[in-house]
User: What shape does this take?
Amino acid sequence: MKEEITNLRNQAVFRINEVGSVDELEKLRIFYLGRNGKLAQYIKAIKDAPKSEKKSIGVLINDTKNVIESLITNKKNVIKSTVREWVDMTLPGEQIDTGSIHVVTKAIDEISRVFENIGFVRRRYPEVEWDYFAFGSLNFDKWHPARDEWETFFVESMEHPKYGPMLLTPHTSSGQIREMQKARSRGDDVIRMINISKTYRRQSDASHTPMFHQFEGLVIDKNLSIANLKGTIDYFMDSFFGGKRKARLRPYNFPFTEPSFEIDISCDICKGRGCKLCKEGWLELGGAGMVHPNVLKNGGFDPRIYRGFAFGWGVERVFMMKENLGIDDIRTIYSTDLSYLKQF
Ligand code: FA5
Assistant: This one.
């Protein structure tokens, strides 16, 4: 049996050396090393060999198996390195997906450009704020509902000795006092700021998301009036919506502006008939008003000399209201459905 196995090994060495393809090599592997291959047959036959030879036959089979295995591996590497891969240059190339700018970032860029064209300076103020900047300095009553835990996200057990509890800023108006203090520390007495930042509230429905963006305009100068505020709003409406949409100012109440307004735009989805998004034909874009004298004082501006106007609107809302976009649920803007987002 030993002689047969040695002959088998010599034969295998010769045949492996002769083959020219990986397929032929695989056939040889199965022939010699497969479950029912030649070596498996000798292993089965060990039981019939004389007792004194069983061990040496086992060692010989094992050696033969190792030799054939390593010869096959080496030959496979040699074949692969010499056979050139054939490339069909006429096949279409592989499509590689490229990233693109998110619609909200595009809207922010466009809004910034519109205001920068009339001399506003882009600002960004903290997302995590102290109560004083978001509410206290803006004339909010201690019990105002916006401070309620159900509207604003508070950061647990974080409290500033002077500025009160820590929170996720619920509106960009929290940048007003910071901007006024910054201007004062530089000795400036004119402000034209456009603060665009992330804001957070406990809200989620067709027209609300828990995280959204606002853009806040703040202008401070001598001799400003409601006419300047109205002119700025009209300019933005024309530049952003192309002059085709109707806007209305509604009297409203914000603690930090007096008088205060809400600005609505005619709904483009239902053309004013009322729908899931707007309910009655108008969609609220945001608030506006003349800066309250107490707020001017808190920011270091004398209300007997200076006037201010401010407005704060939702970026996602104004984007949705662009003509013919047909977005009837604000939450879809933050969906992860790329085929939907690619439309914009
Ligand atoms: C304010 O936040 C005031 N700070 C606006 C302001 C600034 C008034 C300056 C006067 C002077 P309001 O809570 O209405 O107001 O929010 C303003 C706008 O933000 C809304 O009209 C809407 O466009 C957007 N907005 C508010 N909450 C959400 C939300 N959860 N999801 C998406 N957009 C929202």
In short: The chain has a mean pLDDT of 89.
